[in-house]
Structures are given as structure tokens and as C-alpha cells.
Amino acid sequence: EAEVAQSPRYKITEKSQAVAFWCDPISGHATLYWYRQILGQGPELLVQFQDESVVDDSQLPKDRFSAERLKGVDSTLKIQPAELGDSAMYLCASRLGGHLDTEAFFGQGTRLTVV
Amino acid sequence: GEDVEQSLFLSVREGDSSVINCTYTDSSSTYLYWYKQEPGAGLQLLTYIFSNMDMKQDQRLTVLLNKKDKHLSLRIADTQTGDSAIYFCADSSGGSYIPTFGRGTSLIVHP
After folding, report:
1. How many CB pairs under 8 A join A and B?
2. Least CA distance to A38: which residue of chain B?
3. CB nearest to B42's CB, from A42, A48, A108
4. How high is the mean pLDDT of chain B?
5. Residues A1/A104/B37/A2 CA torsion (nearest 10 deg)
6. pLDDT tens, residue by residue, B74-86
């Protein structure tokens, strides 16, 4: 069964270090999202891609976060430098796209702990 | 305030029905979603409802939508221990398909 792949599953990093997460969406899915889920809260959208283009990054803290999807397939989310408050689950989701497509499929997430 | 609000906890006995409630503020939401998250896992879409519907049933799940009051509920019939998880209500922000999530309701099913 097709699924959204994310790696690593868990990451522990020291504050001020750089960290990167990778997401491989379901094949053929044009739309890709990165969400951040702080413990005890719901996921919050960080960035949305349509193919290789950023559609919405209004909630992405651009002083330290960056995201790219160079070939419109897999995507990388980077944090540099990491801060203690960045500890959270980072979820990637993808959607086929198109007017009648409603379901976003989520990966298992990367749990980041900043110490 | 939050765009999507849910109560944080619900405890039910196995075999009973569970009802999880949600209110949202974005009247332009085209779709409203219910997602399930098991410990340490990603989100699984359980069901969704178009904003022009008031009810949708899918096996043990029943979704009720009161668009006037911007109230959404998820009823799980014959709740099982395997239903224990966090349930997220989400609207589609600004009429797009992008889910905007509530804080989640933790459902605890006890024997």
C-alpha cells in the first residue's frame, strides 16, 4: 500500500545545531504539506508545496526554518539553529491534488527532541 | 482564539457509544474532517463531510454537521478498546483543502 515515508523517525539534537527531516510523498501526489505538532496540541501547517513551488509558507519561521522540494517529489525541512521550543513531531502529508481530491495522507512523523 | 475547538478528554465503557464534539469558526470551510492518531503514529483520516451535508454514516461512524451553529460531531457506535486514540477535528481553512486542526480529544475506552 502506498504511504508517505518520513525519516528519521526520531532525532535528538543539541540546541544551536542544524537538523533536517526528509519526506517522500505518495507517488504522483502533487501537493505536499509539512506540519508541526507540539505535544498536546493539534498539527499546525508550516508550509505547502504544489509540485516544486511553495504555495503557503506564512507560518514557517523563516529566520531558522527552510523547506525545499527541488524536483517536485521528495522534500526536506531544515532547522538551523535548533531551539528548545522546536521539540515537536514534524508531520509530512501529501495529496493527489485536483478539485475532487479531498484526502491528505500523513506520514508517521519525525519526533524531534532538542536538548 | 482557536479556529477549531474540541474537548480534551472523553472516557467511555467498552460497547457504549462515544460522541466527540467540535466547533469551528471558518464558515467557508468546504470540507470537515475527522482524523485519528494512535500513540507515536501519524494521522489517519477516518471520515470527512461536505459542508452541504448534515449527516454521513460509515459503518460504526456517524458524522453530524450543524452548519448554522458550526458544530461537528463524531459518534462511534459499539466503542472498542482499539478505538482508544486521539481524535482530531479539522476544517478546510479558507475554503481550501488544507486541514486546520483542533487540539484533539483523547478517547479512553475502558472495559
Report:
1. 48
2. B103
3. A108
4. 90
5. 10
6. 999 999 999 999 9
